[in-house]
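anyone seen this seq b4? input:
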Amino acid sequence: MSIDALAVFVHKDNPIKGLSLEQIDGIFSSTLKRGGKDAKTWGEVGLSEAASTPISLYGRNSASAPTASSRSMCCRRATTRPP
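predicted toks r here
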């Protein structure tokens, strides 16, 4: 038996309070299987203070087991964008 977890971190100075699974899908996925909208800037996930600031992605190798598990959990096995 195994248990997987997913954590999404933002910089400590980022004022965003939280992200929905649909927003996470819009940030990390290119196929949007959770029905979210494509999100490449912070304004596209509701942060007006930095609306035009691009979201920078960092993560593990897309072929790693934790990445595959994360894709399954939050993006419904969507094609993910490279970090």
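The first helix runs from residue 21 to 28. The mean pLDDT is 77. kinda curious what u guys think
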